[in-house]
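Narrative of activities, Objective 1.

The group set out to show that a structural description can be obtained from nothing but a protein's sequence at a throughput compatible with the screening campaign. Below is one input-output pair from the validation batch, recorded exactly as produced.
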Amino acid sequence: MYRHFEHKEEVFFALIARYLPTFLHVFEMHLPGTAHIEDNLMAIALAGMEYFGEPILMSASFLADTELLAQYRQKMNKVTSEKHSGGPQHIENLLATYLEEERQLGRLQSPTASRTLALLLLGACFQNTYLSQLMGTPPAGKERELVRGTLGGSQPS
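Output recorded for this entry:
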């Protein structure tokens, strides 16, 4: 596989480039003020778990190899400084923006900051996916539980 790429981190970038657009498309399909907020967030959570499932194993190898991790960070710093919206934090920003817009529409009642809610939901999705990969069980099917746990039952019915 590495003969097709000049550097190992390029394999990881190719994997992200292949699966990230599908995840980002969910944000285009589930806009603030449309459908029920819980349904929108469940779709986002499910897409997140599907996305995280792809690069999760390779990212573990990046963390284990300090030289490879340094090369990855250097390239990611270049990507984020050039485009101002690239990199892994882009998903966090999209979700935080979505939640803030729902709050402004009066559809999100949680006293917790939108960015914190985004981190809580994405973190729960990542953890669920990681454990599913580790244990060999399917990650899907928990999106409602993760969304409701993140929102804390503070949404209007």
